[in-house]
Design goal:
With 169 residues, the protein is of the alpha+beta class. The chain has a single domain, classed as Nuclear Transport Factor 2, Chain: A (Roll). The protein has five helices and seven strands, in the order ααααββαβββββ. Strands 1, 2, 3, 4, 5, 6 and 7 form a seven-stranded mixed beta sheet that branches. Strand 4 and strand 5 form a beta hairpin.
């Protein structure tokens, strides 16, 4: 009887110990952050902080799709550049911008970056607004560098400002 109890106990515990070793757990897999993807995100942050619509557009593929908050999707590098050009002329200026990368793996010539962001925007004078939200971007390698294929972002709170851009495509 003693052998049966020990055998049952070990057979119940053995599968559980297998889960604790070997393959990464689901939580560990969700923390993959590739430095080359983060480097590209940092370039994007700098371009937005500089108000440089051409630099943002240069990070996009010719057929990229942008899905911004409070606007219909925009297709193509020229439309994306125009969106950023209008946004940078708007009533708010981005004065601080950070990302928290939740997952950013490279899968061959494709990568994705999913995370959250925080922005501080100056509305003129001493007036500022803090915005937080989330984003997803799909990247494709082109000519040895990552280009944005799809980018979507939206805020955690309802928009406090109306977009200053035309939504015509």
């Amino acid at each position: 009887m003693y052998r049966i109890v020990i055998t049952l106990l070990l057979s119940a515990l053995f599968p559980a110990t297998l889960c604790l070793q070997g393959e990464p757990t689901e939580a560990a897999a969700l923390t993959q952050v590739d430095p080359s993807v983060v480097e590209g995100a940092d370039k994007y942050l700098k371009a937005v902080l500089a108000g440089d619509a051409s630099a943002v557009a240069a990070m996009c593929g010719e057929d990229a799709v942008l899905m911004p908050t409070d606007c219909p999707l925009l297709r193509g590098r020229a439309a994306i550049e125009q969106y950023y050009r209008e946004w940078f002329k708007g009533p708010a200026t981005v004065t601080a911008f950070t990302f928290t990368h939740l997952e950013s793996p490279v899968l061959g010539d494709t990568a994705f970056d999913v995370g959250t962001y925080r922005q501080t925007m100056s509305l003129g004078g001493d007036s500022t607004v803090n915005v937080s939200g989330k984003y997803s971007v799909i990247l494709r390698r082109s000519g040895g560098e990552w280009k944005i294929a799809y980018l979507i972002f939206n805020g955690d709170s309802p928009s406090k400002m109306q977009p200053a851009v035309s939504t015509k495509q």
